[in-house]
Structure formats: structure tokens, C-alpha cells
Amino acid sequence: MQPERVIKYSTWALIAVGIFSLAWWLGRDPTRSFAESVPGLDNRGAGFGADENVIIGELFEDFGATFTELSETWPRFRGENFDNISRSGIALKDKFPATGPEILWSVDLGEGHSGAAIWKGLVYILDYDEEGRADQLRCFSLVSGKELWRRGYNVAIKRNHGMSRTVPAITEDYILTIGPRCHVMCLDRKTGDFLWGIDVEKDYESEVPLWYTGQCPLIDDSVAVIATGGKALMIGVSMATGKKLWETPNPNGWKMSHSSVFPYTFGGRKMYVYSAVGGMAGIAADGPDAGKLLWEVPQWNKSVIAPSPVCMPDGKIFITAGYGAGAMMFQLREAGGNFNVEILHEYAPREGLSSEQQTPLLWNGHLIGIMPKDGGTLRNQMVCVHPSDPKKVVWSSGPEKRFGLGPYMIADNKMYLWNDDGKLFVLQPSLSGYIELDMAQVIPDGHDAWAPIAVADGYMILRDSHTMVCVDMRK
Amino acid sequence: MASDKVKSRREFIRSGMRLSLALSLGGVAGLAASEMTGDGHVWQIDPFLCTQCGRCATDCVLSPSAVKCVHAYDLCGYCDLCGGYFKAGYNELSTAGENQLCPTAAIERKFIEEPYFEYHIIEDLCIGCAKCVKGCSSFGNGSFHLQIMHHLCVNCNECAIARVCPSRAISRVKASQAYNVKGSFTKES
């Protein structure tokens, strides 16, 4: 064959191969074996209990027990002053006797993390009756542990890292509770008579938070304050009548978190500070514009929020959350009746004071808390910071002293730390370091002891996931 | 006399050589027999020492790594919000790719009943990066954990991951107890 022909045929052959290869390359889908990750692959159900007809307050039992009237109170989540610090003058133990803590009584509860409130010799706790499938507000004698009465309602709750998880609010006249599925119940404190109730999930189209409601209700003077999420951000309800007094609109559809509403007075205004799923807000608490949004921080948008805001006298507000959220410190300012916010610090959990579940203590001008598991080298340690720089650690408990998700509070100038496993630590609050005075196993084989501590008249109420105990802490 | 002396020296050396060879062969045969019939050793991860550094995915001589995530179902909370499945700052609790922590979508999420979801590791897709293990350990019960899968592992004389493991979580274990799973949630102190 002549060379020209060879070249000619080879050229055409190459062109043909090239065209074929191009067509193959263009026609081939390299992603044909890929599977799309789209919503709905988990076949998620429609939710449970949405059509369940809950009759709030329908159940009542009177056990005819008596109680010893005492003088002190621990009337709500974080106590009288919302700071988890007792002002009682009663001296408390800083060392346990050789025989261990004096446990006066013990009561089995449904699985959960709800905490107790105390009113002049009576203990109130919202329990979930697993056999009866009912939320029950139970009233016990503080001294004897005898149950006086219980009031509740049937509602279906399944185990989901516990069931109950809120602390009732108590006044001389009223008891206010929020159940796992957002049922608000108001009772007469002395008799347990049912006064009124709200099904927040139904009435406000709210989404029950993951692992059920953690928001503890607030009674502010004669007003019940509930952060509903859904159709409203927050509502104020008359304790006497159950009628709604005001409502804060929720145009951005913020959702209910596990955080609780905290009253705060700054710049001449009393307000309610709330950390919702979607953002943080300050809402007018009184006057003709009660319920009006005074300020908001949409930058604080975290998916799971359990700790409550820590509001400081100078307008600084600290908020933290778990699940990788970290923390934020911002400065609230007032000018001519208007409020604005400047974010001072925003950081990941490994960079500074953060907390997954408990609200840090503001003590002696410093913040004290326990770091979450994703807190880097400080994970699970107790740390102390100054609000001017929450990323700079003043002291930490050290790698040998790590704790879980349990609560900590101050009484009689001692800090009591209730660890996950049912151990009670007695610490000396200090700005110089972690000082441990004593420790005792209060609940043997304790598990998930996360409920807030309540203390009054020298009696301390502690619980783990299944057991509530009363410890005589008087010196 | 002299020739007898030389002969006996040679004989002595030969005998010594024979004995050494016999001992060596016997030793090798014994070692091989013990490997065949008794406990050999393989590499495995202690999940309680693992710090989820990510080196299992990058330092194994195999690609993808012979290290995979395994799931201790008896420890799992079956949560809707699973710290091992969803990344922090997820948009919604759905199976959409942008919400998932796993870079290869190796975790299958299935609704069981309200409020429970089951999570299943697709071994073929898992690259052993430990992102899910870190999420589960930080926010959940720690039911996700890493193990060296012995149907994949080539059992190198010196494991390339063990050499760089910062917490020395990888060690030789008896082949008869080749896995160190967390299921019973026990840890010898």
C-alpha cells in the first residue's frame, strides 16, 4: 500500500475512534451508580399523640398524709433569685460523717430528670407515672417523705432519654407545671385543686422539643409566662383566671427550646429573656406594651438549647448550648427606651466556657460551669471565667476532676455538685481554684442524675433518673 | 592421633550445625503449628482509648481503610437527633445530604416508631473516618465505635495505623478474640 493511502486511512481511523470515544464519553453518566441523599429516606412517621385528647387535671388522689410546716422555700427552677444560690442562713455540712450522708427518705419515680420545688415543708415534683401513663404533680412532706396528694392527667409518653424534665413554679397560692408534651397545668397550692390548663402543642401549633419539654414555667407576680414557640413566641396568662393577658408574635417561626424564661431588669425596663430555637429575645414584661419584642439576637440560632441565659447587672448576657453550639456573650444597651445588642464573643465549645445542659453560675462576678464533652482539653472539667473574656480560663478543676451533665448550686457559701452517677461533691467556691471539701455516694449506682438541686430549711432534694432522696444537710 | 583430632573437630562442627538446623526447623515448625492450631494475633482497636483522630481513614495500607464503624445497638438511644448522624448546625432532622455528618453517606437512618430511629452502618461505604464516632461520643451514648475488620485487614507485621495512633488504641490481640466491641458496655479497669 502506498504511504499516502496509509496516512489517509490512519487519519480517518483516528478521527472515527476519536468521534466514537467522544460520543462514549459524553453519553456515559459517571454518577449513574450514585444514590441521592434526599429528605424522606428514613420513612419518618407523622408524629404521635397529635390527636390524643388530653384532659389536663383529670386525675387526683389524696393520701391523707400530714406534714411538718417549715419556713423556707425553693420555689422554682434556680431558686428565688433565678441564680441557683440559696440565701438561707442555715449552716450546711461541708463534711459528711463517717457513716455517709444522712438520707431521710427515698422515693421511686418514673424515669426522668424533673426537679423538685419546695414550699414551707412541702416538696412538689412533676413525675411521669409509667404504669398509669400519666403526668402527675406529686406533693410530699419535706421532713417525712410521705406523699400527701397527686394531681395529673393521662398522656402517652415513651422513654426518650427520660420522660419528665421540668421543675414546677410555686407561690403561696399556685402551682404551675409544664409536662413532657407541653401541657401547662395550674393548681391551687394548698389543696391541689385544678384551676386551668393549656395544651401548648395543640393551641399554639408548637413543636414538642426533642426529648420532651425542658422549659421550666415561670410565675412572675400574678402572671404565668410560657415561651410557646409556634403561633406565638411567648404568652402571659393570668394565674387567677387562666386568661391570656398578652402574646408576643412569632413572625420568624422560632421554636420552643429546653431553655427557661428569665426575668431581667435593665435600662429601666423589666423584660423576659428567652433563648429560643431560632434566636434570642428580650420581651417587655410590664406596662401597656407587655409582650412587645424589645430586642432580639437572631445570630444565636442553635438547634438544641438547654441552658438558660445568664443576665448580668451591666447588661452583659451569656448564653451557651451543647451539641457543638458553644457560647455567646453579648452586650445589651439602652438609649431613649430602645435597646440594641453588640456581640462581644461568639465561640466554639473548645474555645471557652460552654455548657451542654446546666446553666452556669454567676458568683462573685465570675461565671462557673462544667464544660461539655466536646470542650477540647477542658472537656467535662469545671471552669471559672470572668465575663469580660469567657474564653480565658481563670481556673479549671484539672484533668483528674471531670464531671458529667449534673447540676451545681451554692448554699451557705458552699458549692454542691451533683454528678451523673449519684455522687454529691462539696466544694469551696473560690476565684483561685477548684477546692474540694468532701464527696459522698448518695444514690448507689446512680444514673443520669441531671435534675436541678433544691434546698430549703437545710434539707436537700436530689434525684437521679429513677430515685428522689432527701438529705439532711444541716450542720 | 593428629588426624583423629582434626576429624573429631570437623565432626563436632558438623554435629553442631545439624543440631542448630534441627532446632531452627523445629522452632519454625512449632511456631507455624501454634499459629495454625492455637491463638494467632491480629490488630484491633480499643474503643475506650480511641480519640477519633481520623488517622484510621488516612494511614491504613488499604484504600479504603480496613477500619470501619460498628454500632452497638444495645447502647444506642435510637434518638431522632443522633449526634453521629447529623452534623452540628443541621438544617432539619431529615436524610438530606447537607444534614449528614458522614462524608460518604454510610449511615442508613430508618424510622422505627415515634420517637425512635435506627441507624445502620453500610460497611462498603464506610471509610473509617470516625466523624460519626466523635459525634456519637460527644453527644450520645457512644454506641458508634471503630473496629478493624479482619475480612479486610491484611494483618501487616507492623500496622501502619498503630504506628501513628496518638492514643495507642491499636494493639495486637488474640485472633480468637479478634473484636473489641462496646456492646456489653464493660471496660476492665
Concise description?
Chain A has 475 residues and is mainly β.
Give an account of the 3D structure.
The complex is a heterodimer of chains A (475) and B (189). With 475 residues, chain A is mainly beta. Chain A has a domain at 54-214 and 405-475. Chain A has 2 helices and 34 strands. Chain A has a 6-stranded antiparallel sheet with strand order 1-7-6-5-4-2, with no helix packed on it. Chain A is globular, with a radius of gyration of 28 Å. Chain B folds into 2 domains: 1-38; 41-177, 2-Layer Sandwich (Alpha-Beta Plaits), CATH 3.30.70. Chain B has helices at 2-37, 55-59, 131-139, 160-164; strands spanning 41-45, 67-71, 107-113, 116-121, 144-148, 170-174. The mean pLDDT of chain B is 88. Chain A binds chain B through residues 35-45, 47-49, 158, 160-161, 210-211, 302-304, 322-325, 356, 372-374, and chain B through 77, 79-81, 83, 88-90, 92, 94-97, 100, 105, 108-111, 113-117, 137-139.
Helix and strand arrangement:
The complex is a heterodimer of chains A (475) and B (189).
Chain A: H1 3-27, E1 59-62, E2 73-74, E3 103-108, E4 117-119, E5 122-129, E6 134-141, E7 147-154, E8 169-170, E9 174-178, E10 183-188, E11 194-199, H2 200-203, E12 218-220, E13 223-226, E14 232-238, E15 244-249, E16 262-266, E17 269-276, E18 279-284, E19 293-297, E20 310-311, E21 316-321, E22 326-335, E23 338-347, E24 361-363, E25 366-370, E26 382-386, E27 389-396, E28 408-411, E29 414-418, E30 423-427, E31 436-441, E32 454-456, E33 459-463, E34 467-472
Antiparallel strand pairs in A: 1-7, 2-4, 3-34, 4-5, 5-6, 6-7, 8-9, 9-10, 10-11, 12-13, 13-14, 14-15, 16-17, 17-18, 18-19, 20-21, 21-22, 22-23, 24-25, 25-26, 26-27, 28-29, 29-30, 30-31, 32-33, 33-34
Chain B: H1 2-37, E1 41-45, H2 55-59, E2 67-71, E3 107-113, E4 116-121, H3 131-139, E5 144-148, H4 160-164, E6 170-174
Antiparallel strand pairs in B: 1-6, 2-5, 3-4
